Amino acid sequence: TEAAGAGSARREAAAAAEGAAAHGRSRGLTxxxxxxxxxxxxxxxxxxxxxAALLVATALLWPHLGIEFLPEMGSRTxxxxxxxxxxxxxxxxxxxxxxxxxxxxxMPELAFVAAQVGQQQHDDLLSLMxxxxxxxxxxxxxxxETVRTRDLGPVMDAAKARLADLPVRSxxxxxxxxxxxxxxxxxxxxxxxxxxxxxxESVARDLDARLRRALGDRAEVRLGLAEQQPEVFxxxxxxxxxxxxxxxxxxxxxxxxxxxGVQATHVRQNGQTVPVVVxxxxxxxxxxxxxLDYRVSSPVPMSLTDTTSIRLSNVVRAVEQTGPQSIRRVxxxxxxxxxxRPARSDVRDLTRIVDQVVAExxxxxxxxxxxxxxxxxxxxxWDELGTVLLxxxxxxxxxxxxxxxxxxxxxxxxxxxxxxxxxALWAMFLTGTNLGVASxxxxxxxxxxxxxxxxxxxxxxxxxxxxxxxxxxxxxTAARRRLRPVLMTAITxxxxxxxxxxxxxxxxxLQGPLAITVIGGLTASTVLTLFVVPILYVLLSGSSxxxxxxxxxxxxxxxxxxxxxxxxxxxxxxxPRARGAPACGRPSTSRCPPRSARCxxxxxxxx
Length: 607
Fold this sequence. Notes:
By secondary structure, the chain is α+β, with helices and mostly antiparallel strands.
């Protein structure tokens, strides 16, 4: 029992010593801050001038910040798109795809590689009208989690270098499929619109050459001009078709059935319904000559040897030419798009260069050039988020004005907002974080967070001033007593944001910029608020040495308190005592008993 008691006493003594040490450290920090604040109040101009200089330096920092819409989101998959010359046989395209797969599989940064050769099309008339492309290669490669990096740029560059010498017309490596899949990508789109397709093609090719020279390796420029592919038109000889008893629709249907087949019936197999498609054997239709030799059923014989069908070449004429794979229209007008895909997510300089190239382009009549994609999204996002940010600041100010019943003192608290924005921008610059939607959301969060420190200081200062304390003493006392709550709130918030800022896991790309913005803004705002807000409070209170608002409120409360005391005295039945009258009811020449004695009304003169 004695040993247990001794152990408990030692633990209590250790805890008391630790608490005393922590209290001593806290008192030391408070004393240090008290001394610095006194010096800052003596040199108000220097402190405010330094804060203004930091704001000016932050404004000069603005052009050096990268801009993006949204960071690359979560995908650790690379998408490689290659195109062979139009009309390349599927076998040759497949051979190139297999070689690309082999080279990519040798990269230690890639764990899985899969390729798709040709463009998937449905085996129907719409597919025939659109054209079946056999010259495209799409490869998907996965970067495993063992590659601990958020920026896949070096891996993409290495993959592109390995495939650079393949016999392809175009090669691109990205984190989403070319032609879509990510509506929030950082691609810049240049749209050339008009009626004359030749003029559109001329302007688009000129812009393509200019952009490639101006951007160099900083971005990949893709001309969205539809590639010309070989086409075969079958022109029906109406007179010969009429002699054979065939119409254009019957001939078209016969060609479709020959190439795509016709669904004749259904069969049941293993409990499932399976369609039966009838079509000629593939060996019979290997080229155009085989198709022209194909026989079409006819009610009118055109030869003595075959009275049930006629050869297709007897009623049609094959015309070989080239045509676009697709025709793009925007708002009813033909359009050609140029896609500028940044090599990195920062697009500030790229946007400026693209704007300059577009402005210098010579456009023929009827042709217009507009910017879309990232440029349009950035413009819309800045407008909307800017409006929301101003609205948030206004609402916070109105709420504080209603609480403080003053229009002036909430202005002191609102100074914390630009101080927080300054810290957020410097944090983004020092960490290489681009300014985008996620960062702006962090700034909007700061508007509601950083004002708390100012509210704590200003509110407690007003309480002390209403108690009659001089303004400077009230400011120093309030700042000293509220130092620990302010620091504890800031430190806990910053500590909670650090894992988000440092996270490398998939899906943390959006939270990272937001956390960095909040950490930088809250740090700068907390440090500067502890000095700037007290100085502004003293300056705004004037030279009287007492808070005007606090004085008015104290005088009103004093008058109210006096009225309550007078009413209580009347209810007690005694007349109010004149100023200077003794408290114990004795003549003015006599002295009251000591403080320890209690007067119980007027004393009797009888012995």
